[in-house]
Amino acid sequence: MEGMIPNRLAILGHPQRLALFRLLVRRYPNRVPATELAQALDLKPNTLSTYVNALMQAGLITQERVGTSLRYAINMEVVGATFDYLLRDCCKGRLDICLPPKSRDFEGDRPMTENKYNVLFICSGNSARSIFAESILRKVAGDRFSSFSAGTKPRSELNPFAVEVLKQKGHDVSVLEAKNVSVFQKVDAPEFDFVFTVCNHAANEECPAWTGQPVSAHWGMPDPVKVEGSNAEKSLAFQQSYGALLNRIEAFTALPIASLDRISLQKAVDEIAASEDSVSS
Q1: How far is CA 262 from CA 1, 110, 190, 245, 265, in A?
Q2: If DSSP codes are grouped into helix, strand and coil, which group holds residue 88?
Q3: What are the phi and psi torsion angles at 73 (to 5°)?
Q4: CA gap 213, 265 in Å, rounded
Q5: First vs last Cα of the chain: how many Å apart?
Q6: Which of 34, 67, 100, 236 lies 20 to 30 Å from 214 when distance is taken between CA atoms?
Q7: pLDDT, tens digit, for every residue of 252-280?
Q8: Is 236 exposed, middle or buried (CB count within 10 Å of its CB: 0-12, 13-18, 19+)?
Q9: Closest C-alpha among 227, 277, 228, 242 to residue 167
Q10: What are the residues whose beta carbons fall under 8 Å from the beta carbon of 151, sequence distance 6 or more?
Q11: Is the previous residue joined to 224 through a cis bond, with omega within 30 degrees of 0?
Q12: What single DSSP character describes residue 75?
């Protein structure tokens, strides 16, 4: 194990291998198809193959074949052991000198104790899935959470099918608008306790680190905007997206957040999408 550390650090010292590693961390615990990785990072298939092989040989990622598709995921056990070794050996366990200044008060066994939590949902267009999530959380548990949404490439207006579903479900759509995620990265923006991506494109994109160390997770799901067919078929796709997000948010709001340490809370929000996917498959 310890003999592999220099090799792992050398492999991650390459900018594009590091970008691939970071993308898979953002998508954890998902397994991401090679074609999606190549598209997100603008890599040729043979170049991607070289990078993933290097990361696999170092034990940092794992590979799984699903039909004709190769899918990759972070090997979090190995990554955790690597960071643990660096902290114990190189830093001699000195959290006060090895962690960034804003992270030195982080304690894995410290629960979150805020009375009301700020939650941000991100997708690419901010016209359907993320506004569903924002609206559902506001209606389901608005007394405990302040709910926001944004897009990495927001559309100029909300999707009319999404708006119609929200109206049917009794949501106030007058408070909704499509906006860029940069709005919430300004100095006077709220500090978030939770940040969830609800589409793969948004999760694949590089975003600046959020202040305050929010708990984050990827709740990816199909884009109903891309469904083709009759209006009835399109409407059904939006209804299904709304239902899937309702299930996830109800599971999220049922968590005993104030009594969970951050490690347990992170695991819980990661598992919400995984359990929902297993039910729907």
Answers
A1: 27, 7, 20, 23, 5
A2: helix
A3: -145, 155
A4: 13
A5: 37
A6: 34
A7: 999 999 898 888 898 899 899 876 554 44
A8: middle
A9: 242
A10: 122, 123, 124, 125, 126, 127, 130, 178, 179, 180, 181, 202
A11: no
A12: -
* 266 burial level (CB within 10 Å; 0-12, 13-18, 19+): middle
Largest CA distance in the chain: 63
Confidence of residue 1 (pLDDT cuts 50, 70, 90): low
**What string of DSSP letters covers 178-210?**
--BGGGGGSTTSPPPSEEEE-SHHHHHS--PPP
Packing angle of the helix pair 5-12, 15-27 (nearest 10 deg): 100
Q: Cα dist. 104→95, 97, 99, 133, 261 in Å? A: 6, 8, 6, 32, 16
Tokens of 182: 């940069």
The burial class, CB within 10 Å (0-12 / 13-18 / 19+), for 162 is buried
Length of the chain: 281
pTM of the shown model? 0.74
Please write the tens of the pLDDT for every residue from 64-99: 999 889 999 999 999 988 888 887 777 776 666 666
Residue 35 CA, chain-centre distance (Å), reads 19
The pair of three-digit structure tokens given for residue 270, joined into one six-digit string = 């990661």
Buried b or exposed e, range 239-250, using 16+ CB within 10 angstroms: bebbebbbbbbe
Q: Is the pLDDT of residue 59 over 70?
A: yes
Question: Is pLDDT above 50 for 104?
Answer: no
- pLDDT of 199-237, one tens digit each? 888 777 766 678 777 898 899 889 999 999 999 999 999
